[in-house]
Amino acid sequence: MTLNDKLQQAETAYHRLQTGTMAVSITEDGQQIDFNRANIHQLKNYIDELKLQLGMKSTRRKGPAGVMF
């Protein structure tokens, strides 16, 4: 499975969780990994890691800009 395939699988799983599916599974290095709404942030982190490996920009949001005096 290529990195692009892994990214597509992870993004599909993330979308399913966002749209009401209670639990999803993805395969990583031959192992099944289960995600649910309680650990959706771990799936998002995995997606961001794959994007970095592929040279894509991360979709992580940065915190609000601070004001310095």
Describe the structure in your own words.
By secondary structure, the protein is an alpha+beta fold. The chain has one domain: Head-to-tail joining protein W (Head-to-tail joining protein W, gpW), CATH 3.30.1580.10. It is built from two helices and two strands. Strands 1-2 form a two-stranded antiparallel sheet. β1 and β2 (31-36) form a beta hairpin. α1 (3-18) runs antiparallel to α2. The protein is globular and about 45 Å long. The mean pLDDT is 88.
List the helices and strands and how they pair.
Layout: H1 3-18, E1 23-28, E2 31-36, H2 40-53
Antiparallel strand pairs: 1-2
Describe the structure in brief.
This is GpW family protein. With 69 residues, this protein is an alpha+beta fold.
Strands side by side in the biggest sheet: 1-2
Domain count: the total is: 1
CATH architecture: 2-Layer Sandwich
Spans where pLDDT lies below 50 across 5 or more residues: none
The tally of beta strands, per DSSP, is 2
Which sheet architecture does the biggest sheet show? Answer: 2 strands, antiparallel
CATH top level?
Alpha Beta
Please tell me how large the radius of gyration is. Answer: 14 Å
CATH-derived topology: Head-to-tail joining protein W, gpW
CATH superfamily heading: Head-to-tail joining protein W
Gap between N and C termini, in Å?
Answer: 51 Å
Mean pLDDT: 88
Q: Level of helix content?
A: 40-55%
How many helices?
Answer: 2
